[in-house]
Write a structure and sequence with these properties.
With 77 residues, this protein is mainly α. It has two helices and no strands.
């Protein structure tokens, strides 16, 4: 379960969500943009990236808790 939580919730979200956002940001030209364009890009990027990062954080915690539980339960049996 820990592996699945990590692969989907952390790695999957990174590959499908955060990396494309980072690529989009990399292609954005701050030099050729207006102040409003920069503000709009930041709002679009920052809100979505933070949302996805919060998902990754939650699934990271879930993954490590599942690993710890598996270690504890395995030792008890």
């Amino acid at each position: 379960m820990a592996t699945l939580a990590y692969l989907i919730g952390v790695f999957g979200v990174t590959v499908v969500g955060n990396v494309p956002l980072n690529d989009q940001l990399d292609k954005f030209s701050i030099v050729n943009s207006t102040k409003e364009g920069i503000r709009q890009m930041r709002d679009n990027f920052e809100n979505r990236w933070n949302f996805l990062n919060n998902i990754r954080t939650v699934f990271s915690v879930i993954s490590i808790l599942l690993v710890v539980c598996a270690c504890v339960w395995n030792k008890v049996e």
